[in-house]
Design a protein that fits this description.
With 243 residues, this protein is α/β, with parallel strands linked by helices. The chain has a single domain, classed as Alpha-Beta Barrel (TIM Barrel). The protein contains 10 helices and 8 strands. The protein is globular and about 45 Å long. The protein binds 2-phosphoglycolic acid (PGA). The site of 2-phosphoglycolic acid (PGA) has 12 residues, from strand 8.
Length: 243
């Protein structure tokens, strides 16, 4: 991992209301009161961003959005400027669910990354192949395609976070194998400088976290389901205390 600080991100997706999001944030503050070496980010739904920023107070846990709008006059979108103004510091961009269900393509992802950085939000850019792309041996080509435009638009990669999330491992029974993760992370690293962080996401839980945290090409995790339980999320974070 060189000198990169581990980054563990909880992607709360869209199931929690404001009160439940605040409760989860408060439990997490309690869980992490002793301090950890990793940087911790939680990404509640847009609806709960303001309340969660407030609930986290001056704790060291940062807040991320799950997406941003790129057009200030599009009804229903929330601009990067407004998100940053709410005290949010990260934004997840190009999650496979948005690529598939909200029809976001590589152009949209690149535009959002530009918009995020222009507003001092650190983008967490999700990439990853589908099952059929993997079967067709196209994983590296897909990762290259997904990152090409983003990297062409970035001046420096220092604040970049790439989340490798193989689509077939999201919401699954178990994460990808360490071998698969290493190959993908090394391929991604070949396209970046040394300072960008490359984190893994897809069915991380407290059982699988230690083995993957021990893999040097992995700089942290993007956690979905297991981040909805403060104790389980804490146990995942603990995997990096032992590396
Ligand atoms: P999961 O979700 O941990 O529930 O597989 C990961 C994600 O979608 O970011």
């Amino acid at each position: 991992m060189m000198n990169r600080q581990p980054l563990v991100v909880g992607n709360w997706k869209n199931g929690l209301g404001v009160a439940d999001s605040v409760r989860l944030a408060q439990s997490l503050v309690g869980e992490l009161a002793g301090g950890v070496r990793s940087e911790i980010v939680v990404a509640p739904s847009l609806l709960s961003l303001v309340a969660v920023v407030e609930a986290l107070g001056d704790s060291s846990i940062a807040v991320g959005a799950q997406t941003i709008g790129t057009n200030d006059v599009c009804t229903g979108e929330v601009s990067a400027e407004a998100v940053a103004d709410a005290g949010v510091t990260y934004v997840i961009i190009g999650h496979s669910e948005r690529r598939m269900m909200a029809a976001e393509d590589d152009d949209d992802v690149a535009a959002k990354v530009v918009e995020a950085t222009r507003n001092d939000l650190i983008p967490i850019i999700c990439v990853g192949e589908t099952k059929s792309e993997r079967k067709a041996n196209r994983t590296k080509a897909v990762l290259r395609r997904q990152l090409k435009q983003v990297l062409a638009k970035m001046k420096s990669d220092s604040a970049l976070v790439i989340a490798y999330e193989p689509v077939w491992a999201i919401g699954a029974k178990k994460p990808a194998s360490v071998k698969i993760i290493r190959e993908a992370h090394e391929a991604i690293r070949g396209m970046l400088g040394r300072s960008a962080r490359i984190i893994y996401g897809g069915s991380i839980n407290q059982e699988s976290a230690p083995l993957i945290a021990a893999e040097p090409s992995v700089d942290g995790f993007l956690v979905g389901r297991a981040s909805l339980d403060a104790a389980a999320f804490h146990a995942i974070i603990q995997a990096y205390e032992r590396v």
